[in-house]
TrEMBL record:
<keyword id="KW-0560">Oxidoreductase</keyword>
<keyword id="KW-0503">Monooxygenase</keyword>
<dbReference type="GO" id="GO:0043386">
    <property type="term" value="P:mycotoxin biosynthetic process"/>
</dbReference>
<keyword id="KW-0812">Transmembrane</keyword>
<dbReference type="GO" id="GO:0004497">
    <property type="term" value="F:monooxygenase activity"/>
</dbReference>
<protein>
    <recommendedName>
        <fullName>Cytochrome P450</fullName>
    </recommendedName>
</protein>
<keyword id="KW-0472">Membrane</keyword>
<dbReference type="GO" id="GO:0016705">
    <property type="term" value="F:oxidoreductase activity, acting on paired donors, with incorporation or reduction of molecular oxygen"/>
</dbReference>
<feature type="binding site" description="axial binding residue">
    <location>
        <position position="417"/>
    </location>
    <ligand>
        <name>heme</name>
    </ligand>
</feature>
<keyword id="KW-0349">Heme</keyword>
<dbReference type="InterPro" id="IPR036396">
    <property type="entry name" value="Cyt_P450_sf"/>
</dbReference>
<keyword id="KW-0408">Iron</keyword>
<feature type="transmembrane region" description="Helical">
    <location>
        <begin position="6"/>
        <end position="30"/>
    </location>
</feature>
<dbReference type="InterPro" id="IPR050364">
    <property type="entry name" value="Cytochrome_P450_fung"/>
</dbReference>
<keyword id="KW-1133">Transmembrane helix</keyword>
<dbReference type="InterPro" id="IPR017972">
    <property type="entry name" value="Cyt_P450_CS"/>
</dbReference>
<dbReference type="Pfam" id="PF00067">
    <property type="entry name" value="p450"/>
</dbReference>
Length: 498
């Protein structure tokens, strides 16, 4: 039976098929989760003439994304993103599965292979110290300090530059360009030009989105090309710490990348690594305001492993089992990418009796997987302990089940996020330093909203809206330790350009 024989149209109160998606990605996802309970863990629906399927069980993800990766690794057509803003498959996240994507994915390994990631520890450590110092000096600005952290780590690793504050021009330029770029990529931000290609031929005065897309292209490409130009200039003056772009330029003959591909590999790393990592950290802070018992357990572990004379560092992470459980729970409870990033099927396929035509868009419903009541004990509850007894945090799951991933935040298959290890290192280290240094407290006894519907931004990637929180240093001694760390970090930063 063809899955599309039983199409489920998404229709909002205005009668528009795309309405629900356009109105709210979160509502789309929650609706899908309800449907998965009613219709089963594979739900098909139509977006205009476009077939789409949502997978709400990890077993399907393993079977289709991981085992049949050769045909489940395309990206859905995205005219504004793929044709106007980033043509020629220049943007790795949006690129179609094929030789250009393969070339760039391989080159990305230069930044994100295990050894290269481990070599970034000193940058992450120094930037985490800077963030703790920002939080001590200006706790109200926590939201921007955390966002600065993730961008600055990528700036240093990729371009040997940094953003000392959230107001630094490089950080601001990235977030401004990224804000407009991700908005135009959201479903419903343009007329349905992917489902109905004739709409692409409308004149520009009837298509303001096209003008916006062209402007974004201009802003984005000049930012990415300029960063490479600056890197080249410093390289010629021998004033550069080793960085990813330098390596790509040195190996250009071997890696076969053109200038634009190099520029966009740098840019894609900044985009992909900034908002995502900071969203996970902000969710951690939100969870701590509501779960003092988890914060206490975290602090007990950190004090036992690190004492009070020094703050946590990378050597401690292996021993910090509860801290890791807490990170896994943050990523499970409020996934940064609750429907990962959709893939597109590039050949007709059949699965569990369904016919899936070429061109079908396939979503992983990470939210539904993480909230499955038959697998997780009280899934709505924030409970890091669930990961202490079981690797997957599940009640009856065999720890050795190789069909499962601990989290579906990072997608799956051949397009799985290559930055997962880097991101997790950042999240773990900052969580550890923050909980070691501060009591993270609500401002009042009123509970803070943590609902995915109302407390989070809406879109493919979600982050908590700003919420009231107090960062109260745990002791004078701990403040002194961070100040000592900061002096060392400043010496380290002297090698990087602001
Ligand atoms: C908590 C942090 C992060 C989350 C939740 C996240 C999530 C994701 C997801 C869901 C995808 C799509 C996977 C798929 O299609 O199946 C992705 C792709 C990607 N991510 Fe991440 N990511 C994070 C951090 C990072 C970092 C730090 C980097 C590195 C600088 C990075 C680089 C990339 C790249 C280059 C892609 C495109 C892969 C491709 O299309 O082949 N990400 N990420």
């Amino acid at each position: 039976m063809a899955l599309v024989d039983i199409p489920l149209f998404i229709i909002d109160h205005s009668g528009s098929i795309l309405g629900v998606i356009a109105l709210s990605f979160a509502i789309f996802l929650l609706q899908q989760t309800e449907w998965s309970k009613k219709y089963g863990s594979i739900v098909g629906f139509k977006i205009g003439p476009q077939n789409a399927v949502v997978l709400s069980d990890y077993r399907h993800v393993k079977e289709l994304f991981d085992k049949r990766g050769g045909i489940y690794s395309g990206r859905p057509e995205q005219y504004a993103g793929q044709q106007i803003i980033c043509p020629d498959n220049i943007h790795m996240l949006l690129a179609q599965y094929g030789p250009t994507w393969r070339l760039m994915r391989k080159a990305m390994q230069g930044l994100l292979n295990i050894n290269a990631i481990d070599a970034l520890h000193p940058i992450q450590l120094a930037e985490a110290t800077q963030t703790m110092s920002h939080l001590l000096d200006d706790p109200e600005g926590y939201y921007d300090h955390i966002r600065r952290y993730s961008t600055s780590v990528i700036l240093a690793s990729v371009y040997s530059q940094r953003g000392e504050s959230f107001q630094s021009p490089k950080v601001q330029n990235l977030y401004n360009s990224q804000y407009r770029f991700s908005r135009i990529l959201e479903p419903g931000a343009t007329p349905p030009v992917d489902a109905f290609p004739f709409l692409r031929r409308l004149p520009e005065f009837l298509s303001p989105w096209r003008t916006e897309a062209k402007e974004i292209r201009q802003i984005q490409s000049s930012l990415y090309f300029n960063l490479v130009k600056e890197t080249k200039e410093r390289r010629s003056k021998h004033d550069l710490e080793p960085c990813f772009i330098e390596k790509l330029l040195d190996d250009q003959e071997k890696n076969g990348l053109n200038d634009a591909q190099i520029a966009y590999l740098g840019g894609t790393s900044m985009e992909a690594g900034s908002d995502t990592t900071s969203a996970a950290l902000l969710t951690f802070v939100l969870a701590m305001t509501q779960h003092p018992e988890s914060l206490k357990a975290l602090q007990a572990e950190l004090d036992r492993v690190c004492g009070t004379d020094r703050s946590p560092n990378f050597d401690d992470l292996d021993q910090l089992k509860y801290t890791r459980a807490c990170m896994n729970e943050v990523l499970r409870w409020r996934p940064v990418a609750p429907a990962a990033v959709p893939h597109m099927l590039t050949q007709d396929d059949t699965y569990e009796g369904y016919v899936l035509p070429k061109g079908t868009i396939v979503f992983i419903n990470a939210w539904a997987i993480h909230m499955n009541e038959s697998e997780y004990d009280e899934p709505e509850k924030f409970m890091p302990e669930r990961f202490m007894g079981n690797k997957f945090g599940c009640k009856n799951q065999d720890d050795s089940d190789d069909h499962r991933r601990i989290t579906y935040n990072f997608g799956a298959g051949r397009r799985v996020c290559p930055g997962q290890r880097l991101a997790e290192n950042s999240v773990l280290l900052n969580m550890a330093k923050m909980a070691w240094l501060f009591d993270i407290l609500p401002i009042s006894s009123e509970p803070i909203d943590t609902s995915i519907r109302t407390a989070f931004t809406d879109g493919v990637l979600i982050a908590p809206h700003k919420f009231p929180v107090r960062f109260v240093p745990r002791s004078e001694q701990r403040i002194n330790v961070i100040q000592g760390d900061l002096e060392r970090a400043k010496k380290f930063f002297a090698r990087y350009k602001e």
